[in-house]
């Protein structure tokens, strides 16, 4: 009969002696034989999807590069001509002016929208409602034909005599009309962007400033707005890119922007596709630069909200190169010879 003490002794012996592991190709056990080999999961569907996407991308690139209808030699010839570069400069100038003036007008509108004064709040809401409800092209055409409603503009006493009068036709040219129309349109969207950023700031920040005796204007300028920039910058960056592309609509007013300059060229040469590709490539190039700038601005304003800033593209490249170098070193390193019984 087996006693309980014999069972305890045999259990201890069994726990002390590890089970034998059989390795392929070797009867001896190395120092790492007890460590199980981890096999990574094979994502077959993911690899097939990536291969199919790369195949479609290669087909599209091949069709674009080898299609003679694009006339890439013509694209290269007109890409840096004086007419195209002048139109590009006007497009960039128009984008910068409209964005600056739009946010200068939109920020007070956002503050008015959040005001406790019902008159200011209603006026701001009405402005945003009207300019967001009307298509941009309709607004530009309306401002271009404003002389039909107001043939002259005057400066003087309200409901009294006018000291200075000027004809609207002589005052509002195509470029100024484009600036006014785009600015008023962008201000409505900028007001909503700024308002959303202000609302994203915790109300406790304002309450703490009031407890310290800080005025409302200083609280808004020094505490609320800097914290709201983290929410404002991404949307403002999208607005900037949208405004850059939206300036092409001013070509209907005969403003010599990038698209209108290209149209003037292909109206003479009848090379529509290559000239449109010139405008497309310039828009892509400028948008890429603006997108990169937006990334660094967002990264700057994320310093107070994230423990670690997101890596820059250069930092990602360095990490990938270091990982690739480490894999190459492991692959080329001489493998250790397994120990045999005769060496011991």
Share of helical residues: 55-70%
Q: What structural class should be given to the helix and strand makeup?
A: mainly alpha
Largest sheet: 2 strands, antiparallel
**Residue fraction in strands:** under 5%
Rg over CA atoms, rounded to whole Å, is 34 Å
Number of strands: 2
Q: N-to-C terminal Cα separation, in Å?
A: 43 Å
Q: Could you report the average pLDDT, rounded to the nearest whole number? A: 82
Ranges with pLDDT <50 over ≥5 residues? 4-28
Question: Given the structure, what is the number of helices?
Answer: 13
Helix-strand sequence: HHHHHHEEHHHHHHH
- Indicate the overall shape: flat
Task: Explain this structure.
With 344 residues, the protein is mainly alpha-helical. It has 13 helices and 2 strands; from the N terminus they run ααααααββααααααα. It has a two-stranded antiparallel sheet. Helix 4 (82-113) runs antiparallel to helix 10 (216-246), helix 5 (118-133) crosses helix 8 and helix 9 runs antiparallel to helix 10.
Task: Summarize the topology.
Layout: H1 4-16, H2 44-65, H3 72-78, H4 82-113, H5 118-133, H6 136-144, E1 152-156, E2 162-167, H7 168-171, H8 174-199, H9 203-211, H10 216-246, H11 258-269, H12 272-301, H13 313-332
Antiparallel strand pairs: 1-2
Helix pairs in contact: 3-12, 4-5, 4-8, 4-10, 4-11, 5-8, 6-8, 8-10, 9-10, 10-12, 11-12
Quick description:
This protein is mainly α and 344 residues long. It is built from 13 helices and two strands; from the N terminus they run ααααααββααααααα.
Features:
mainly alpha; single chain; 344 residues; two-stranded antiparallel sheet
């Amino acid at each position: 009969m087996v006693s309980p003490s014999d069972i305890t002794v045999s259990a201890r012996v069994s726990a002390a002696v590890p089970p034998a592991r059989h390795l392929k190709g070797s009867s001896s056990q190395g120092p790492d034989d007890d460590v199980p080999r981890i096999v990574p999961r094979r994502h077959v569907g993911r690899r097939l999807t990536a291969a199919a996407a790369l195949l479609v991308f290669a087909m599209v690139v091949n069709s674009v590069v080898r299609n003679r209808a694009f006339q890439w030699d013509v694209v290269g010839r007109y890409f840096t001509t004086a007419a195209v570069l002048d139109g590009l400069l006007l497009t960039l100038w128009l984008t910068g002016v409209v964005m600056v003036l739009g946010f200068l007008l939109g920020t007070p509108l956002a503050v008015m929208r959040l005001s406790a004064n019902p008159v200011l709040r209603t006026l701001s809401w009405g402005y945003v409602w009207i300019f967001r409800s009307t298509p941009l092209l309709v607004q530009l055409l309306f401002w271009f034909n404003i002389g039909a409603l107001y043939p002259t503009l005057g400066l003087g006493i309200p409901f009294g005599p006018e000291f200075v009068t000027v004809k609207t036709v002589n005052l509002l040219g195509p470029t100024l009309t484009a600036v006014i129309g785009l600015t008023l349109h962008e201000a409505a969207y900028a007001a909503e962007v700024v308002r959303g950023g202000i609302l994203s700031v915790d109300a406790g920040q304002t309450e703490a400033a009031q407890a310290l005796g800080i005025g409302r204007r200083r609280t808004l300028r020094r505490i609320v707005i800097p914290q709201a920039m983290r929410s404002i910058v991404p949307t403002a960056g999208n607005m900037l890119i949208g405004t850059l592309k939206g300036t092409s609509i001013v070509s209907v007013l005969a403003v010599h922007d990038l698209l209108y300059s290209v149209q003037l060229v292909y109206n003479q040469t009848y090379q529509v596709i290559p000239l449109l590709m010139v405008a497309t490539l310039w828009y892509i190039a400028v948008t890429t630069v603006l997108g990169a700038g937006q990334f660094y601005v967002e990264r700057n304003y994320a310093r107070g909200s994230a423990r670690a800033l997101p890596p820059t593209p250069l930092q990602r490249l360095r990490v990938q190169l270091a990982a690739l170098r480490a894999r190459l070193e492991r692959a080329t390193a001489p493998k250790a010879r397994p120990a045999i019984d005769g060496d011991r």
